[in-house]
Write a structure and sequence with these properties.
With about 270 residues, this protein is an all-alpha fold. It has one domain. The protein has helices at about 10-25, 30-60, 65-75, 85-95, 110-120, 135, 140-145, 150-165, 170-195, 215-220, 225-230, 245-255; strands at about 65, 260. A two-stranded antiparallel ribbon has the order 1-2. Helix 1 packs across helix 9 and helix 2 (about 30-60) packs parallel to helix 9. It is globular, with a radius of gyration of 18 Å. The two termini are about 25 Å apart.
Length: about 270
């Protein structure tokens, strides 16, 4: 395998600048409106990651009409984790080779840094293999969003900037708190690739080292029940016991009541991916 390179690209430079901008919250006002905005955007975009990138586009664990599918893709990509086709293609690879040779982000076969963020910053997995997401790539709007994957997150940042400038909380302060929210979503998501394969409990003897972790489940709206997920990857529900909080599943059930979401797969009917 060729050595890992971490080239300076627009994406990697943006990643570093977002972390620096997040540190700026130490030097700007801490107002309730700013904290509320950051928390609301964390919650909204974490739902986009868990329900969108992961359970819908990667595992097809429920169904949406085409307009709702497009909106969920936009919401997911507002988190700044590249296109839904890129995310789904690489995640499906992860499940095919979990913690084995070929797993793109395992802390077992690679380093903890690699599994957490190194694989994203490297130049090894920049491209999207559309053959692995043929079910998604047939939609031209998703291919367009893939090409301009940065657009939803940029548009959201501009909306936050306009809100900050017009509301009196300050342009710089609003962008700093937006950056903090974005970075928090990044690293909460990344912990499932890294920490959830080394820290927690194992209910099922899966072929990988996935673990359940209640703290990570709270931070990621249910994704921390990772051993459950690797046992039943096609299931939308990841918190299998009544006490295993799965906020994403709860939100999707509410959307099902109003017929936005249909055919939510359970661990008894989930298609193994």
């Amino acid at each position: 395998m060729p050595p890992v390179r971490y080239p300076i690209t627009l994406a990697s430079a943006t990643f570093v600048l977002l972390h620096l901008a997040a540190l700026a919250v130490c030097f700007v006002p801490c107002r309730p409106a700013l904290v509320g905005m950051a928390l609301a955007l964390y919650a909204l975009r974490m739902f986009g990651v868990t329900a969108g990138y992961h359970r819908y586009f990667s595992h097809r664990a429920f169904r949406l009409a085409r307009p709702a599918q497009c909106l969920l893709a936009i919401l997911a990509q507002s988190a700044g984790q590249k296109g839904v086709l890129w995310w789904a293609a690489h995640h499906r690879d992860h499940h095919r080779h979990s913690d084995q040779a070929g797993d793109i982000h395992s802390p077992v076969t690679g380093s903890f840094f690699w599994s957490h963020v190194g694989w994203v910053l490297s130049d090894r997995y920049e491209c999207t293999d559309l053959d692995k997401v043929k079910d998604l790539a047939r939609f031209p709007e998703l291919r367009w969003l893939e090409r301009f994957h940065w657009l939803p997150s940029l548009a959201l940042a501009l909306l936050v900037a306009v809100w900050g400038a017009s509301s009196g909380v300050g342009l710089g302060a609003s962008l700093a708190w937006f950056a903090l929210s974005t970075v928090a979503v990044y690293h909460a998501t990344f912990t499932i690739n890294s920490l959830a394969h080394v820290w927690g409990t194992r209910r099922f003897e899966t072929q990988d080292r996935s673990r359940n972790n209640a703290l990570l489940a709270l931070l990621t709206f249910g994704e921390g029940w990772h051993n459950n997920h690797h046992r039943h990857p096609g299931s939308c529900r990841q918190g299998l016991r009544w006490w295993e909080l799965d906020l994403t599943q709860g939100a999707l059930r509410i959307l099902a009541w109003v017929n936005i979401v249909t055919d939510i797969k359970s661990h008894s009917s989930g298609v193994q991916s």
